[in-house]
Design goal:
Blueprint (H helix, E strand, L loop, with lengths): L25 H13 L6 H17 L6 H7 L1 E6 L3 E6 L4 H18 L5 E6 L17 E5 L2
């Protein structure tokens, strides 16, 4: 009990104030544990990794990249896997290579992912230019491969 008003009355206080205890919701802990164990939203990570490897191998075989690291420099790529394989490319430095990459995914992607749909989004700037929070940057190319 705390006499906050200084008038002799007292009130109960709760929370993370001075001397208070900051308690994490049990529901939050359950969701966090499930996400760590199951991968929350990463349903198609195996298919996404397989697609990325095949893209890198193809670009190297075509002479567009010399190594996987070179591909990562030319095509700043990030994968995400919700209800499909999401492939994001930021600040592509080789337009011809980008066209070859997209053509490869359109022609071979569904076979590589075992039928899992693929989304490719291309952004004009580097990912770091958009910050680390949820953002909605301008897309310069958007391709959906579903069959």
């Amino acid at each position: 009990m705390v006499d906050e008003e200084g008038d002799g009355s007292s009130t109960k206080t709760r929370g993370a104030g001075r001397g208070g205890l900051n308690v994490v919701s049990p529901l939050f802990l359950i969701i966090l544990i499930v996400c760590l164990l199951v991968g929350c939203g990463e349903k198609y990570s195996t298919q996404g990794r397989a697609l990325s490897k095949k893209i890198d191998d193809y670009l190297i075989s075509r002479g567009i990249c010399s190594t996987v690291k070179d591909c990562n420099v030319k095509f700043e790529t990030y994968e995400g896997h919700g209800n499909q394989v999401n492939y994001s490319i930021y600040n592509p430095k080789d337009r011809k290579g980008l066209a070859v990459l997209i053509e490869f995914v359109i022609e071979n992607g569904i076979q590589i992912t075992g039928g899992v749909p693929i989304s490719i989004s291309v952004y004009p700037k580097s990912r770091k230019d958009y910050g680390n929070f949820i953002f909605n940057p301008e897309t310069i190319i958007k391709v959906e491969v579903i069959k």
